[in-house]
């Protein structure tokens, strides 16, 4: 969750593989949906690849907030997120297996989407 100020700098990766600016909207929060939310909602909400590029010359302060899971608990699609006749897109796995998969994709994306120099 992010309360953006006028400095901005947040960028998201669109489906064409281009970084686009997420311009601040006064009085609103930005909520970046993570992979776990994508999994349990059966892709109703999609994880967003994002980064910050601050070229303003002004300080930009960010504080990340994460929450954890019991790594032995199962992670599956919520029944309420599967419409009649729709298939579950994800198998049930432990939270640990899900976390390891997410980390693997994260490190791969760092190599693929390194900032331009």
TrEMBL record:
Q: Name one Pfam family in it.
A: 2OG-FeII_Oxy
Cite the entry's keywords alphabetically: Iron, Metal-binding
Cited InterPro entries: IPNS-like_FE2OG_OXY, IPNS-like_sf, Plant_2OG-oxidoreductases
Instruction: Specify the species.
Output: Xylaria arbuscula
All copies of the Isopenicillin N synthase-like Fe(2+) 2OG dioxygenase domain together span 2-67
Give the protein name, as stated in the record: Isopenicillin N synthase-like Fe(2+) 2OG dioxygenase domain-containing protein
Is Iron among this UniProt entry's keywords? Answer: yes
Transmembrane residue ranges: none
Example GO molecular function: metal ion binding
SUPFAM superfamilies linked: Clavaminate synthase-like (SSF51197)
């Amino acid at each position: 969750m992010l309360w953006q100020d006028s400095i901005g700098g947040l960028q998201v990766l669109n489906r064409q593989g281009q970084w686009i600016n997420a311009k601040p909207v006064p009085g609103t929060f930005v909520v970046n949906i993570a992979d776990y939310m994508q999994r349990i909602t059966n892709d109703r909400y999609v994880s967003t690849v994002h980064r910050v590029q601050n070229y303003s010359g002004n300080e930009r302060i960010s504080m990340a907030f994460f929450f954890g899971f019991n790594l032995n608990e199962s992670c599956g699609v919520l029944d309420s997120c599967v419409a009649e006749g729709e298939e579950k897109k994800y198998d049930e796995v432990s939270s640990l297996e899900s976390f390891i998969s997410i980390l693997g994709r994260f490190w791969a994306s760092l190599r693929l989407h390194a900032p331009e120099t």
